Amino acid sequence: MDFSVNPKHGDLIESAKSISKDILAPRAEEVDQESKFPRANFKDMARESFMALTLPERLGGRNLYADPEAYSMVLYELGKGCTTTAMLFHMHSSIVHILTCLLGSEEQSERYARAVLDGKIFASYASEATSSLHGKMVMDTRAEHTDDGYIINGKKYFCSMAGEADFYVLWCQLGDEELAKSLYLFVTPAITPGINIDKGWDSFAMRGTMSASMSFENVKIARDDMVGNAGDPIRPDVLPKFGFGYSAVYLGAGGGAFDWIVDYAKKRKLQPDNVPIATYPPISRQIGEMKIALDGALLMVRRAGWLIGANGAEAAYGAINEAKFTSAETAAMITEKAIKIAGGSGLMRHFPLQRFHRDARAGLIMPPNTEKCLELAGITAIKGKAGALMT
Amino acid sequence: MDLTLQPKNLALYERAKVLSKELLAPRARQYDEEARFPRENLDALAKEGFTRLTLPEENGGSNLFSDPITYMMILFELSKGCTNTALLLHMHNSITHFLMTLGTPEQRENLSALVRDGKIIASHGGEAGTSTQWKRKLDTHAKLVGEKFVINGRKVFCSMAGEADYYTLWVQIGDDWDVRKTMCFLFCSADHPGFTIDSRWNSYALRGTASHSLKIENVEVSADSLFGKGGDPIRVDITPKFGLGYSAVYLGVGAAAYEWVLDYARNRKLKPDNVPIASYQPIQRLIGEMKIEMEKALLMIQHAAWTLKTFGAEEAFPIISAAKYTASEASASITDKAMKVAGGAGLLRENPLERLHREARSGLVMPPNSEKCLDSVAKSIIEANPELYGTP
After folding, report:
1. pTM reported for the whole predicted model
2. Are A269 and A345 members of one domain?
């Protein structure tokens, strides 16, 4: 047994720490308050080659998805600085991995990799209103064959980076069969005519993600921009990786709140005692609880990452749900306690606690939400095996 | 990260699983009900080499404190079968390790011969109404008279009192009250007439540990019964290892409750539905929660053991405290939830849940107790070098 991080990617975790602290954290308040897409962050991260981390090595990347544990540590560190940026970075990195390492042809992989190296950002849109990705469903967003490619019509919800990303990857149904036989990925430049933002993003948390609702009217897609085979996006070795990354991102909100409140409690003194409030037993006790929960959750995320790397995402499915539950609940708990310790300061918008507290609430809801995670972890345990993803 | 066990010691771990299921589990209820020392288990474990786990290889042991992760996993597995047995085995193996670490070559030779012969060593440190503060007068004192130490005093929570073959007493030698200078290990044969049990162990949980109170009157031991020097018993590289083993033992309680109730939920059917209760969503949710608590606690124990091995006991101290806290709280929570899933069956003494539920409560109390663990972790952050205790 060995709990050290793969030395091959130690440099990336260190870079993520400094990017988080020096670049992301100082802009996080502005991103949140103005509900502003963190474009400046991505420009700076592209300069550090971070936007290409999940490209294959032969195409100029670090193939970081091959080491999911290190990838999760990078997300966690970025999340401590700015949860919104870490989340969008994860979405971009995941879909880039799927396009260039898993599903794309050689020609497609090279073409998308060039765009990524050129600083282009990729978004991925799957969600639709009042639906979940069940085996049998008719999607709102449908593709049809044309003479020179495809045409897409439909609606998508929670489209992070809508109007901001350079490329959209649309999850669409082609034909009338069940999803495993009809769901495909289509890649389109964001500027393609027919793509409209129906309703902007004005939310309690994750305010800079620009997760608007979108509609697609006769959007033309070139023949060579359909990626993979039918059903590939929901393959058990593809889909769970999204959820795994979310667990690291949202734990970052807890990690950020923890770092801030420990620093605060060590410096804050009240009259007449005039000693740091960290020395009061009720406060030091809570710091102990937060630290233990944080370290435990990080281990659960890393364990899921190790299992994905060692046995594949399908076999790690139970562990991914366990990690997502633990990290989302832990971040929610830590941000709650941190606000209590900080007192009135915890409510001030010029301090980050209230932002972390709000962002952590989105972590409870982000799929798979914590109740779903519990159910899936329970079913996986009851069945005594990794469990089928789609039943 | 790599979560696989060291191949070298895998056979011991696999054997522990078998022994736990086939040997320990069937007798666990009996030891608990009769508050009886699990001698048959310890004899069988001695024959299988499990009382020599921490002896160096050259002394005929498995040197398993050099692979603390496997050692913890063995305790965890044994405890699923019988918490009493796993706890006592850990006490024996730990004190054996400490004595072997501190002893002279001759002492080590003699001690390892006893252990190879199947003898059981107990360790008696607890005293009434005290905690391990630097400055205090111990009730139990030893005085060098000629060639012999003469020991007088009283110890409480003496697990295996009247049962072990040898006692290791934590005594004060000399008049200095600073226990860092004067607290010592004295190794004594248990059959000295100066030992009397003056208050018997009749407890809510861990009923088979025979943790009686022991009166010590003019017990004479030879001068070479002193292992190490003053302060050694509370050295930072010694005591935290007890606590880590307790984490594994007490998490075994939760794991046993989880495994039992999982099996129960898979098979139990209620009319008119006539499907296993495991198919009800509220039950699935509880099972999910239990599983997650258990996995996290196990991971924290493994991480603490790895830290202990890689960076030493001082660095591992707050991580061990975090593991102990998480493991004992997890077992308390899991045994609670398991009872809810089982319903009335959970209360019946013919089923193991009520015993496990009680045993999990002693996990919360066993030093370092949960509140003390929180305190240690917090102090490591607030006071200590942040580089040392930063997130991994």
Report:
1. 0.93
2. yes
